[in-house]
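Hi C.,

You asked whether I'd gotten around to modeling the 287-residue construct. I have! Everything is below, sequence then structure, no commentary in between.
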Amino acid sequence: MFDPSGIVPSMKDAASADDLGGAVDDLQAPADLAIPDDLAVPDDLTVPPDLKTLPDLFSGDLQPCVAGNFLGFVDGGSSDPFDCSSCGCTLDSLTNATATANKFTHLIQGMAETIDTSLLISSANPNNGDYDLFQSQNHFYLEGDFEILLDYQFPGSTDGSSLILYLLGPVADGGTPFAPWAYTQLYSSSGQHVRLFTQDRYLDIAENLTSGSLRVRRNGAQLCASVAGHEEECHANTFQENRVWIQIFAQVANTNCNSICTGAGCCSYQARISNLRLKKGVVRSTP
C-alpha cells in the first residue's frame, strides 16, 4: 500500500512553506495608485489669485462721474469751497426762480421772463436800454482754473439786441476796468454777430449762431472766450490769482427803440438761456 503523505503535504507542512509565509511583496498596493498630489484636497480653499475679481474693476477712477449741483452759499446750504474740478457741476439751471435768487442779484427793466425748460427773455416792444441782468457778485465767485458754459437760443431780433456772458475780476487801478475781464457776446447789427473779448483782445465776426453754448475758460494765466465749437479768442497773463464773478446780460441798445414806436417795424427782443454750468472749477463765497 502507499503512503498518502507522500502525495499531499500535511496542513502543518503547508503552513510553514516559505512561499506562503507573510505578505507577499508583489501584492502590496502599488505606489502609483495613491491619490496624486494634484487631486488632493488643498490646505487653503480660497480662490486662487488669478481667479479673484480684479481689484481695478472697483477702483474709484472707474466709478461713474456724477456732476455736482451748486445750491448757493448760506441760504442754499452749499459748503465753501464747492469743488467742481472732478466731474463739473450745475451752477444754475435757470428754470427755478427761487433757486436762482440764492445765487444771483437779478435786475430787470422792460423785459418779460417765462420759465419752462429754459428761461425765455422777451419783449415785443422794448425801449432803448431795456435789459435783464443776473450777477453773482456778493453771492459766489470762481477760483483758479475754470470752464463755464451757458446754453442759449438767440434767433436774432432788433439791431442793438445782445446776449452776453461776462467773467469779471476785481476793479483794477486805471487802464483795464476789471482784472481779469472776458466775455462772449451775441448781437444783432444788420445780421447776427459774435464778439469774443479777453482783457484787451477781441474778435468780432459776422456769424449766425442761433443756438449753442457761450463759453469762457481760464487755464493758468490764459483766459479764453468762445462759442463752444467755434472761434476762440485767448489772452495770456490775465491775473490768474484773482477770483471772478459772473454776469449774464440781455439788452437792447438802439435809440430807435422807444415807447411811441408800435407795429411790426418796431423793436423786439427774444433769447432763451439755460444750464449755466462748470466743466471744471472751484466756487467760493468771497472775492
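If it helps when you're writing up: The radius of gyration is 41 Å.

Thanks,
B.
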